[in-house]
Amino acid sequence: MCGQQGMSPQDTDPDPASLRRIIHVDMDAFYASVEQRDDPALRGRPLAVGGSRQRGVVAAASYEARRYGVRSAMPSVTARRKCPDLIFVPPRFDVYRAVSAQIHAIFARYTGLIQPLSLDEAYLDVTDPLIDRPSATAIAQDIRAAIRAETGLTASAGVSYNKFLAKLASDYRKPDGLYVITPRMGPRFVESLPVEAFHGIGPATAARMRAMGIRTGLDLRAHDMDSLARHFGKAAAFYYGIARGRDDRPVEADRRRKSVGTERTFEHDIHDWAEALSALDGMVDRVWGECRKRGLVARTVTVKVKYADFQQTGRARSLPQPLAAHAVFRQVACDLLRPFFPPERGIRLLGVTLSNLDLTGGASPQLALALDDPGSVQAGP
Known about the structure:
By secondary structure, the protein is α+β, with helices and mostly antiparallel strands. Among the domains are: 30-93, MutS, DNA mismatch repair protein, domain I, CATH 3.40.1170.60; 187-242, DNA polymerase, domain 1; 259-380, Dna Ligase, domain 1 (2-Layer Sandwich). It is built from 13 helices and 13 strands. The chain has helices at residues 30-38, 63-66, 76-82, 93-108, 136-151, 163-172, 186-191, 203-211, 217-221, 225-232, 236-242, 273-294, 326-337, and strands spanning 22-27, 47-50, 58-61, 87-89, 114-118, 121-125, 155-160, 178-180, 259-270, 296-307, 312-318, 347-359, 378-380. The protein has a five-stranded mixed sheet. Strands 11-10-12-9-13 form a five-stranded antiparallel sheet, covered by helices on one side. A hairpin with a 4-residue loop joins β10 and β11. α4 (93-108) runs antiparallel to α5 (136-151), α10 crosses α11 and α12 runs antiparallel to α13 (326-337). It is globular. The two termini are 28 Å apart. One of its GO terms (biological process) is error-prone translesion synthesis. It is an enzyme of class 2 (transferase). Belongs to the DNA polymerase type-Y family. GO terms for molecular function: damaged DNA binding; DNA-directed DNA polymerase activity; magnesium ion binding. This is DNA polymerase IV.
């Protein structure tokens, strides 16, 4: 994977894991781009997919909107304040799923080792591709061209010898870009990056690292395994590796979903049990229906509560056997929610999740669309 020709022998790291050829494909502003594709009047204009209501949330933003600082998960009120000309369109989940299916069909022409992360991104292991191409870079070029030709959308791709670097590479030339990180480049590439840019290091962990004086990949590399283990436990080995450009995780083609859930943000803060119960019933119906459709059973129920001041809490219960019926699921969810009432503060969001999933047989654990929207079902990877 050196430039346009793939890895040359002198670039090859002796570690067998580095011989993998990994592509990370990430669609560019996927939901917003689909809307602009389907409605020419929206092209070139700042666009947000999501609810425009007072308590709405941006699910996706076009690149025109991002120039104003509009981002996904941002409250719609904030987004409109940043960009007064912002156009809101409601999400069309079925359309996004259909386009995602087209894109994944393109991936399948090149490899059977595909790990979807969401509707709009995936890892591909093309170490042993299904077609004869000279390099992973050439395959990434083919995939991007096919996506453009067959869907009218653009995708960015990163090519490298492991998943961590491939994902970093796909971000490096967005939108509509392709970047390659060879084994020789890998350790140097991460040296100057802020730890916040590392996939797998969230805001809380990044803050802890900064308190230790760890601000860049080079700073992280200066800490030995014992030091990292004392501060970060089991995650230490991963952090130790990525600071050196190493990541041995394989592409998991049949990775099963960990959770199925949904959330609802209310138009106004709620205090009333009857109103909360009505919302809970709708969410229980959606999550149960999604699990039935996917052939999944679950043992753990979690209820999430977010208050008007954005403080968040929740309760969970795990059962010895999978939930046998919708009525059992509803009862457990109600029992978990009841202690929060009457609330001391208004509640702006409720959520319900099923986890500890297993297949009942005959269904494939596909990823569902994950959006903070009253009508969407969220799926954990």
